[in-house]
């Protein structure tokens, strides 16, 4: 067992290994496997094969800089995706008390108290002012 471990370490030396994208590919594989079992659709096995080839290619790759760039791109996309759902969750949670409005100058999303009428808002990020109108809510 110790000898096998030594051989594996020697084989993996200078190779990329696993990262967040590799884990996501593994999760995608499991999801595709479940879909394949449930539906029996042959397209899923093609996707599963491609997924496994990509996963092992990345894991055993010696081009570490390229694999890091791929992982960074994946993390950026994942962050945008998660931020979108976090904002959606907050909007639903606060819909009675607050409105969310995008600053027209810097695109920052502002959380403002829900008060009916027209308001002048000063963005805390870019310090510019803009007018907005809230149609529903307390006076
Ligand atoms: Zn702004």
Describe this protein's structure.
- The protein is elongated and about 75 Å long.
- It has helices spanning 2-12, 20-39, 42-60, 64-93; strands spanning 98-102, 109-113, 117-122, 129-134.
- It contains 4 helices and 4 strands.
- Helix content is 58%, strand content 16%.
- The longest helix is centred in the middle third of the chain and has 30 residues, at 64-93.
- The N and C termini lie far apart (74 Å).
- By secondary structure, the protein is of the alpha+beta class.
- The strands form 2 sheets. It has a two-stranded antiparallel ribbon. Strands 3-4 form a two-stranded antiparallel sheet.
- The chain folds into 2 domains: 1-93, no CATH class; 95-139, no CATH class.
- The chain binds zinc ion.
- Zinc ion is lined by residues 103, 105-106, 108, 123, 125-126, 128.
Poorly predicted runs of 5 or more residues: none
Annotation field: number of helices: 4
Number of strands: 4
- Name every ligand kind in the structure: zinc ion
Order of strands, main sheet, comes to: 1-2
| Beta-strand content | 15-25%
What is the N-to-C succession of helices and strands? HHHHEEEE
Span of the ends, CA to CA: 74 Å
Class from secondary-structure proportions = alpha+beta
* Shape designation: elongated
Q: Mean pLDDT, rounded to whole units?
A: 94
The rounded Rg comes to 24 Å
Question: How many discrete structural domains?
Answer: 2
Q: Helical percent range?
A: 55-70%
């Amino acid at each position: 067992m110790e000898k096998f471990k030594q051989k594996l370490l020697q084989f993996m030396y200078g190779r990329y290994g696993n990262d967040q994208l590799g884990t996501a590919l593994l999760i995608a594989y499991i999801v595709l496997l479940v879909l394949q079992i449930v539906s029996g659709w042959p397209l899923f096995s093609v996707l599963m094969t491609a997924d496994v080839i990509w996963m092992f290619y990345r894991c055993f790759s010696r081009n570490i800089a390229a694999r890091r760039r791929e992982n960074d791109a994946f993390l950026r996309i994942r962050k945008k995706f998660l931020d979108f759902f976090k904002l959606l969750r907050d909007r639903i949670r606060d819909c009675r008390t607050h409105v969310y409005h995008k600053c027209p100058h810097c695109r920052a999303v502002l959380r403002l108290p829900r008060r009916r009428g027209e308001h002048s808002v000063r963005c805390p990020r870019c310090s510019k002012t803009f007018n907005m109108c809230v149609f529903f809510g307390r006076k």
